[in-house]
């Protein structure tokens, strides 16, 4: 089979005939050791400012054949002009002249850069994969035509060899072709390699980190905007649940809902559970003005109660006392239902009775008849242990006949990360599709032995990311541990100064914290550490959230003890107790 350059044909190639020729040459055993270049640009064309050859076929010891493919369903020539299919404008050159001019331009260009090619057989042919041209002309040789009957009756590689053999016979009999040596074996296999390098050399250029950031940001914005169709589809429903796994754009859809509501003059309450996400939502919606109140539900309840709040570790206050105080204030306040629309992001964490009562009294019409939008992953991301009820129970009690819009298109992660999510967290059902293009970068699973400090394994990964242009808040280090994490234990320079906890850093620091705290957020590069267990519902839920955070790079720094469990998860087999210890 031939070596194709490029190795695959662009799926957006408009000509089905070119796709077919590409596949035939790529899979033909008779083309062994051939090199085929598809769509070669000719900046120095003999008759035009520039031109293009559909295929340049390098056949060792035979010659160089330029193929022009015309995939029209009909071909005609009238008044000296060629017409292809339904194209209204005629072509005065015709396919044979077009192929010949391209071949001569190629030969002139190539012999200047690689003189040994000058003694090779250069010829051209026209491929008509869908039409038969039963017509002879002095303008071309009949053996230069590969029309539909000839194209489909024999191996295309053998047909190309037949054209080159006839071209060799023709050149050998022409006195004007004194340059031609009929006994020459040029191009040899080595010549073909060098010619391919001259015509289409390999090269590598690196995208700067700033350019990469801009490109990914534009991709994410474009692909998330495609999800806005979900809001349009549900615009006539006063109450809607938007449900989907991580990476499907729920948070940005919620922000867009806030923007649309504010533009309509509505008073918006926009809440979530996670403190870091709440701070980000507040900053993102700040330009919308005072009509939008955004942040965590707990910050909203603090404001209602007129309190600053105790230390974060006082769980009883946050879960019991504060909701009670907020409810009392709402019941004591005339016109407490001050918001026209309620938006809840990561709603699976807030479907708890004491929280729902606060939201019910805050919304005009309440949860039963008011306007609201819930955005959440109601199957996979409830990890805070709040005792939240299921979506089904909530709808039965507070929102009967509410439509649920399913979001299954991943617009955050690259395809390779999305595949890892499916394999290791058993995502079911899977994403319906992934919008981001494949950047060719694999997520990395790095295992370290028990004698090696966790912090050393982490800083090595951070060094490599920094060398690749990821600095400051481009990187987030996530751990299931609130204390004693790998990042917290880093003591050596320079990373002991570069690392800072979430909420205690400037833009120049790399941040670290718990997987729980980073839920709902994303970063260009994510390093996950301290996962001592990767099987079981709790471990899979944390793993699922962690690995769906990156938009570009993902590195898992794992102890050797979980290698067996990871291997079985990747293979689709359930991990056993014995393998978890391997």
Summarize it.
This protein has 582 residues and is an alpha/beta fold. The chain is elongated. 39% of the residues are buried.
Structure description:
With 582 residues, this protein is an alpha/beta fold. It folds into 3 domains: 3-199, no CATH class; 234-407, Rossmann fold; 415-580, P-loop containing nucleotide triphosphate hydrolases (Rossmann fold). It contains 20 helices and 22 strands. The protein has a 6-stranded mixed beta sheet, with helices on both faces. The chain has a 6-stranded parallel beta sheet with strand order 11-10-12-13-9-14. A 6-stranded parallel beta sheet has the order 17-22-21-18-20-19. β15, α15 (415-425) and β16 (433-434) form a beta-alpha-beta unit. α11 runs parallel beside α12 (353-362). It is elongated. The two termini are 44 Å apart. Residues 573-582 have low confidence and may be disordered.
Helix content class: 25-40%
Number of domains: 3
Strand content: 15-25%
For the termini, the CA-CA separation is 44 Å
Radius of gyration: 33 Å
The poorly predicted ranges are: 573-582
Gross morphology is elongated
Structural class: alpha/beta
The main sheet comes to:
6 strands, mixed
What spatial order of strands do you see in the largest sheet?
Answer: 1-2-3-4-7-8
Give average pLDDT, whole number.
87
- Strand tally is 22
């Amino acid at each position: 089979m031939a070596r194709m350059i490029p190795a695959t044909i662009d799926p957006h190639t408009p000509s089905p005939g070119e796709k077919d020729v590409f596949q035939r040459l790529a899979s033909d055993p008779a083309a062994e050791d051939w090199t085929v270049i598809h769509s070669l640009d000719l900046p120095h064309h003999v008759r035009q400012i520039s031109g293009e050859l559909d295929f340049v076929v390098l056949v060792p010891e035979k010659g160089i054949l330029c193929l022009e493919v015309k995939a029209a369903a009909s071909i005609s020539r009238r008044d000296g002009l060629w017409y292809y299919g339904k194209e209204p404008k005629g072509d005065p050159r015709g396919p044979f002249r077009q192929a010949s001019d391209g071949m001569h331009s190629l030969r002139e260009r190539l012999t200047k850069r690689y003189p040994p090619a000058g003694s090779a057989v250069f010829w051209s042919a026209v491929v008509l994969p869908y039409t038969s041209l039963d017509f002879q002309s002095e303008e071309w040789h009949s053996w230069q035509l590969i029309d539909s009957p000839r194209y489909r009756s024999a191996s295309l590689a053998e047909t190309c060899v037949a054209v080159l053999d006839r071209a060799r016979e023709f050149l050998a009999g022409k006195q004007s072709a004194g340059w031609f040596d009929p006994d020459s074996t040029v191009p040899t296999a080595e010549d073909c390699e060098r010619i391919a390098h001259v015509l289409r050399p390999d090269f590598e250029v690196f995208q700067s980190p700033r350019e990469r950031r801009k490109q990914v940001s534009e991709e994410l914005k474009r692909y998330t905007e495609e999800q806005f169709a979900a809001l349009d589809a549900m615009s006539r429903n006063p109450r809607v649940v938007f449900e989907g796994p991580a990476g499907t754009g729920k948070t940005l859809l919620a922000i867009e809902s806030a923007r649309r509501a504010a533009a309509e003059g509505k008073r918006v309450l926009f809440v979530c559970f996670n403190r870091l996400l709440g701070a980000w939502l507040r900053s993102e919606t700040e330009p919308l003005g005072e009509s939008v109140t955004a942040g965590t539900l707990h910050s909203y309840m603090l404001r209602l109660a007129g309190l600053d709040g105790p230390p974060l570790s006082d769980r009883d206050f946050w879960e019991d006392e504060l909701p009670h105080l907020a409810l009392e204030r709402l019941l004591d306040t005339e016109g407490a239902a001050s918001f026209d629309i309620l938006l809840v992001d990561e709603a699976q964490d807030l479907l708890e009775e004491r929280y729902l009562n606060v939201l019910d009294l805050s919304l005009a019409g309440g949860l039963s008849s008011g306007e609201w939008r819930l955005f959440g992953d109601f199957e996979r991301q409830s990890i805070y242990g709040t005792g939240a009820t299921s979506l089904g129970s909530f709808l039965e009690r507070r929102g009967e006949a509410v439509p649920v819009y399913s979001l299954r298109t991943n617009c955050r992660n690259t395809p390779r990360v999305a595949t890892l999510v499916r394999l290791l967290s058993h995502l079911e059902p899977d994403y319906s599709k992934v919008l981001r293009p494949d950047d060719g970068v694999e997520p990395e699973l790095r295992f370290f032995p028990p004698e090696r400090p966790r912090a050393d394994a982490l800083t090595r990964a951070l060094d490599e990311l920094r060398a690749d242009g990821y600095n400051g808040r481009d990187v987030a280090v996530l751990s299931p541990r609130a204390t004693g994490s790998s990042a917290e234990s880093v003591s050596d320079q320079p990373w002991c100064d570069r690392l800072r906890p979430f909420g205690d850093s400037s833009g120049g620091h790399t941040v670290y914290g718990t997987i729980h705290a980073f839920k709902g957020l994303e970063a260009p590069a994510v390093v996950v550490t301290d996962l001592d267990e990767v099987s079981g519902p709790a471990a899979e839920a944390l793993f699922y959230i962690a690995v769906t955070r990156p938009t570009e790079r993902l590195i898992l720094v794992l102890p050797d003890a979980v290698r067996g469990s990871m291997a079985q998860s990747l293979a689709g087999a359930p991990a056993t107790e014995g393998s978890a210890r391997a």
